[in-house]
Amino acid sequence: MGVARRGFQANKLKVVDGAEAFNDEREPPLRMGDRVCLNSGSNVALVVEIGSDLTISWPNGSEAILPRQCVHRSRD
Hints:
This protein is an all-beta fold. The chain has strands spanning 35-38, 45-50, 54-57, 63-66, 71-73. It has a 5-stranded antiparallel β-sheet, with no helix packed on it.
């Protein structure tokens, strides 16, 4: 028996911690192709577009447009 996967609506996400908890001043800003995770926890996703918000994509093809403060660079 597998784990059921459900999509989510990006506009229903809530910030649970500020970006300051995850950012290191020595790291460069996020760029296209960087691997990121949601601050609230998620699988690793890829930054595919940068504007006023980030568009990130997961390996299963799901995408979300989120404020930069909602993600941090993956350490994996």
